[in-house]
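Example complex used in Figure S2.
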Amino acid sequence: MKKKLSKKEAILESATQLFSQKGYRTTSMSEVAREAGVADGTIFYHFKTKEELFLAVLENFKNELIAEFSTYLDGREFQTGLEKIEDLLSFYISLVNRLEDRFLLLHRHFPYTLAKNNPACKSHLEEIYDSLITVFEQGIVQGQADGSIDDLPARTMAMIIFTLVDGMVRLYSYHIYQNGPHYNDLIASCRRMLKK
Amino acid sequence: MKKKLSKKEAILESATQLFSQKGYRTTSMSEVAREAGVADGTIFYHFKTKEELFLAVLENFKNELIAEFSTYLDGREFQTGLEKIEDLLSFYISLVNRLEDRFLLLHRHFPYTLAKNNPACKSHLEEIYDSLITVFEQGIVQGQADGSIDDLPARTMAMIIFTLVDGMVRLYSYHIYQNGPHYNDLIASCRRMLKK
DNA sequence: TTTTTAACTGAGTAGTCAGTCAGTCTCTAT
DNA sequence: ATAGAGACTGACTGACTACTCAGTTAAAAA
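Predicted assembly (392 residues):
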């Protein structure tokens, strides 16, 4: 059973790496096959088209992401909602570093183009963004209950904060601006934004 | 003289539209030629390679952007530095809307990939980001002088604020989250971040 | 053992695309 | 008028790529 899935899994892993690092258009199916140690035809046995392979990669990444956050939050207690937000910011930054080889998937434009005429792709992306923003939102709601965070529209503020961290890590990944050491200022800025 | 440049300009304009809307890889040179009303070979007469055409497009956009900001700021007076920042945020948002057909250029991943082994591309991008961030930085410095903005690292805060607006307009352009109406909250958040 | 089914293979196909080139057109200078 | 230069053309080429398919191998069922 494990062996049976193993080639399919190898394909999925190679495709994830390559689509993320090199991009969808510039990665050929032969390249994925070579990287996975598999014949060209084998890919098409498991995934009908390149697009379908991409969707499988995206879905897989979505599940990984959601699992990462749920294990991080599982059983963890925070003094205040504000502290939770600050921790989440650090966690997100470290997560992007750790999963650098697949996070680029979300920072490329292709998935959003595909989402326009592929409902499955759109819903994967929506689930990803929704779950990430919801995590931040819950921190804000908690902070508003314990008095550490001001009375602001929670969902919107969650989106703003998420957009900010994500924008920072993306800008960093461009290597145009070296803004790694500015994460402390980023977290401080979010604190000022939210504090009562 | 004008007529002499006209086909080259038509090519540049079509390439800008197509590279922005469809992306570099998915746009063929024949497509650009057709759109510009020109024979395939004509493009290669003016631009040796596709990459060179892209660089010309990027440089052109860089100049447009810088010109837009300098005419916006030219002779405009702001009561306080904080007001200047708020105005700049609104201006940036309206600019992205107005130049929607070319702003996507910067929101795609290709230029940053190219920048890795093409110094000209890298320096165009650096100039773009540098000039945008510098505009915000000057507002912050002014605000710190007139007492409307707190004593924070100006350059870093400028980068944070720029990253935030740019991230918001980008997320909006993905059509995953409809966050157009949240621009007021965005501006309010920046105010809280900066205010003394 | 034999049969059946699923997994896998890689050479082949049809299509696309960046870039070339031999030649035509247009305009200017003489 | 004519020569010459620069602008322009589009058919062509070679390289690449997503996908197919006829056939092989491996594994499970009978």
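DSSP finds ten helices and no strands in chain A. The interface with chain B takes residues 23, 25-26, 104, 107-110, 112-113, 115-116, 122, 125-126, 129, 133, 152-153, 156-157, 159-160, 163-164, 166-168, 170-171, 173-177, 179, 182, 185-186, 189, 192-193 of chain A (CB under 8 Å).
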